Amino acid sequence: MSGGDELHPNAARGGRTPAHRAAGPRRGGPGEREACALRAGAVRPDPREPSDDLPRLGLGESANPDINANGNPHYWFDVKYAKVYVERIRDALVTADPAHSAGYRSRATSYLADLDRLDAEIRAKVTQIPPARRKLVTSHDAFPYYAAAYGLSVVGFTQPEEGKEPSPAELADLVELVKKEQVPAIFSEAQVSPRLAETLAREAGVKTIVTDLPTDSVGAPPADSYLGMMRVVTDKIVQALR
């Protein structure tokens, strides 16, 4: 590993979440020095504790027991939380491998600038959606941070808990809510079956269904990095709702 290895603070790969893969370069590829330094004993960022001054949404108010107790873990859908990951990874690497601290700091600074540009890009794209149509119905409760950051509302989700089927009464209630709110589109994440989304859309009279929204892992290009995944998610949401 050379001192010129590139830092990839949020290069999520291999089917794991961006939070879990925050410092996960390919073996033998760019950034392996950073990964080795983290494995050598640096404190890794805890995906459930992004920062003392950034809120955990869902605490004490979610029907999902895990989210109710610990907060919603999908922090990476708000870019300002991703910046906290990068800063923590930078600091951990500097502590674990001080001889290369200047490189870690420089590359983190560059990536933080990329994140600032991404955040501004998402905000600009969301303005293309008429305010009355900025409503999300998804497979599970993955988008509260995205919605709060970028001016959308979460109307509901087809799975009350990830991987758990809704009861007939829960699905019927969601159908009525979607009708009442005049939700323009139903979103199903790429890693789950679209069956529930299709049923909900059919019964609620919603014509637009997106069945390949990346959420808990990256996918094929261009959604094969954190930056790419966020752009793909935003493009799909904007195209379906505007």
The CATH C-level name of the largest domain is Alpha Beta
Task: Compute the number of helices.
Answer: 8
- Across the major sheet, the strand order is 1-2
Strand content: 5-15%
| Total discrete domains | 2
Could you name the CATH topology of the largest domain?
Rossmann fold
Average predicted local confidence, pLDDT? 82
Q: Output the helix-strand order.
A: HHHHEHEHEHEH
Taken from the alpha-carbon principal axes, the silhouette is: globular
Residues in helices, as a percent range:
40-55%
The beta-strand count equals 4
Q: Radius of gyration over alpha carbons?
A: 19 Å
Within CATH, the superfamily of the largest domain carries the name: Nitrogenase molybdenum iron protein domain
Largest sheet: 2 strands, parallel
Alpha-carbon distance between the termini?
47 Å
SS-based class: mainly alpha
Q: Which spans of ≥5 residues are poorly predicted at pLDDT below 50?
A: 1-16, 19-30, 37-45
Keywords:
mainly alpha; 2 domains; 43% helix; Rossmann fold; two-stranded parallel sheet; 242 residues; disordered N terminus
How would you characterize the overall build of this protein?
α5 links the parallel β1 (135-138) and β2 (153-157). The protein has a two-stranded parallel ribbon. The protein has a two-stranded parallel ribbon with strand order 3-4. The protein is mainly alpha-helical and 242 residues long. It folds into 2 domains: 32-124, Nitrogenase molybdenum iron protein domain (Rossmann fold, 3-Layer(aba) Sandwich); 129-241, Rossmann fold (3-Layer(aba) Sandwich), CATH 3.40.50. The protein has helices at residues 32-39, 65-70, 79-96, 101-126, 144-150, 168-181, 195-204, 226-241; strands at residues 135-138, 153-157, 185-189, 208-213. Helices cover 43% and strands 8% of the residues. 39% of the residues are buried.
